[in-house]
Design brief:
heterodimer; A: about 110 residues; mainly beta; 7-stranded mixed beta sheet; 4-stranded antiparallel beta sheet; 11 strands; B: mainly beta; Immunoglobulin-like; about 55% strand
């Protein structure tokens, strides 16, 4: 595998379910990100991890819980979500000290909350 | 308050002609600007970037222009090809954090 991978690609869940999104990067990067993309809205930054430490939480509700066990893996744990949380969730990675902050994105997980 | 705006949601051009995509920003602290391209069912991919100390960067058919006094940047694609049809996002960086625009859907007609 190369680049940034995300699983699952599609997820349908009820409001009482608990699920997790997984992201893995094979680029040797040390920064990882979660973004949310809703219809007709810009990409919204959710969380940033640098060297496994969370450095940004963009006022995300606690029903979204990130986990970064090492610099190659990033999870987003979901519980008691709302229908308005339905969106495309994108993971990205970059070199933490790259001044341009060029990010490499995964294909995303299309989440539908019923 | 949206700090990065792409005011044209869509643009259609003929193959071989120039495509010009525009982006405006409000935060003068942004130090790097990037353009990403996104095809359906894929994540965005990096296209070209420019530092705030420059006013132009060129890479093949793609050129980005930065006008700091107007807080405006643009991406020129020439000649445009049907494979360029995608959603284009501009992004602006400050302290390692990227803020994205809404995106512009470019359609290049054969």
């Amino acid at each position: 595998e190369t680049g940034v991978t995300q699983t699952p690609r599609h997820l349908v869940m009820g409001m009482t379910n608990k699920k997790s999104l997984k992201c893995e990067q094979h680029l040797g990067h040390n920064a990882m990100y979660w973004y949310k993309q809703s219809a007709k809205k810009p990409l919204e930054l959710m969380f940033v991890y640098n060297f496994k430490e969370q450095t940004e939480n963009n006022s995300v509700p606690s029903r979204f819980s990130p986990e970064c066990p090492n610099s190659s893996h990033l999870f987003l744990h979901l519980h008691t979500l709302q229908p308005e949380d339905s969106a495309l969730y994108l993971c990205a990675s970059s070199q933490a000290r790259d001044p341009s902050n060029e990010q490499f994105f995964g294909p995303g997980t299309r989440l539908t909350v019923l | 308050d949206q700090q990065v705006k792409q005011n044209s949601p869509s643009l259609s051009v003929q193959e071989g002609r120039i495509s010009i995509l525009n982006c405006d920003y409000t935060n003068s602290m942004f130090d790097y600007f990037l353009w990403y391209k996104k095809y359906p069912a894929e994540g965005p991919t990096f296209l070209i970037s420019i530092s705030s100390i420059k006013d132009k960067n060129e890479d093949g058919r793609f050129t980005v222009f930065l006008n700091k006094s107007a807080k405006h940047l643009s991406l020129h694609i020439v000649p445009s090809q049907p494979g360029d049809s995608a959603v284009y996002f501009c992004a602006a960086n400050n302290a390692g954090k990227s803020t994205f625009g809404d995106g512009t859907t470019l359609t290049v007609k054969p």
